Amino acid sequence: MTRVRTLCVTALGMLLVLSLGACSLAPKYERETFDMPSEWRKVTIHSTPLYTDWWKRFNDPVLNDLVAEALKNNQDLSESLARIDSAAAQAGVATSALFPAVDGSAGAGAQSMSERTANYSNLANRAYTTYQGALSAAWELDFWGKYRNQRTMLTDVLMNTLISHEALRLSVASQTAQSYFALLALDMQLATADRTLKSREESFAIYTSRYQQGDITELDWQRARAEVETARSQLHSAIVAVDSAEASLAVLLGRSPREILEGRIRRGKAIESMPSPPVLPEGLPSDLLMRRPDVRASEFLVMAYNANIGVARAQFFPSISITGALGTLSASFGHLFTNSSGTWNYGATASVPLLDFGRNWYNLKDAEAQKKAAIATYRKTVASAFSDVRTAFTAQYEANAIVNSYMTQVKSLRRSVEIARLQYDNGYSDYLTVLDAERQLFSAELSLANALRDRLNAVVSVCMALGGGWQDPGVTPGPVLVDTEALKEAQRTAGPATPATDATPAPRPASR
Hints:
This protein is an alpha+beta fold and 512 residues long. It has helices at residues 2-20, 61-73, 75-96, 146-212, 218-252, 257-262, 293-314, 359-425, 431-465, 484-494, and strands at residues 101-112, 127-141, 319-330, 342-351. It has a 4-stranded antiparallel beta sheet with strand order 1-2-3-4, covered by helices on one side.
């Protein structure tokens, strides 16, 4: 008995060594190569970690709090975390397949024999009871690397899931920032519409008095009345837009249904006071983009499908399993654990696919096709990363020029409105000239708010394109690029039609 057990242990040890040294049928993974520029401009810098808290560049505590709230409570991120747990569990299952499965069993049974059976003896007990207990083990040897490649595949899928979660965090943070900037722009447009309406109502009251006295025609009076209603409709549209933006941002923040319906989104700085961080620095190396979460996640998916080819190839080769059991068997529970009641067995089985009507072949072709598709996705993701950088870089570079152009336009149109009103009051032009000037001013003021929003969004786009932004510790965000003093000066010279430039949003009108 001892000799047999020794032989069993020796055989198992040899099989374990052979299994650990078994081959892998997965193709050797070779990373895709790309024709990439060495850098964007002319200065080379060392590769540094990405700046993951890029939203803090805007120096707005409210924005920081909103992003933190979104990253904590967003439901898409909660779903992504659950997917990580699922992927980790699947990788654990694949790891467990590399080791023997050991089971324990125990039982008791009673049966009665028929006296009419062949070779029945009166000396035998017709009814008897048996008790048994056993430990059994089964292990399929991984000669061809099927289970090791499956573990590699699911581990790569886990890494893909983890990094995809990182990409989703980046996306949620950017959506929160852009939604916040959109809300601030709508606040500015709402304040502009409110002030414009009040200005036109004041002017309309004067025109009504002059019309009743016969100083102006009914045509001018009706036009003034129509412009009041135009501003009023724009005001109500702005109220709807602000409310919709608040509700959408509340959902993004993961707030409760009650908070979505009844809550408000806190504001920080006005959009014209938000700092614009520095333009993308020169000389960022191209390999910086290869650290984008979506690029890294795509590459892990290629690696996973590469390992899956090894799993499919192993199906063509024999599978070898060894089994063994050690236990006791007795007709008396009191003798169940005596030496004479011991039982054991061991064995090995091998099976090889002979006729499967092409199942394994098609599985292999499917695995190869999935890898090709993953490579195409990976290459497209890398190309999109460089496209995003090019677009974001240009947008950020030009955004400030667009804002300055609108500021100059608004300042000129405010002066135009002042001159048109003066000429009309002194009889040098008709009222249509005043209306045209006021319409152009109103449109330019609304466009300025959009331009300020787009400039901030361009900064977010740069950080998104880089997978989190560039790291420059110790460097504070750049100065405010909107000339607020110029805006205030224009407000003083333009009269009541000037939009708000205070740091706090204007209160909502009572009609809300």
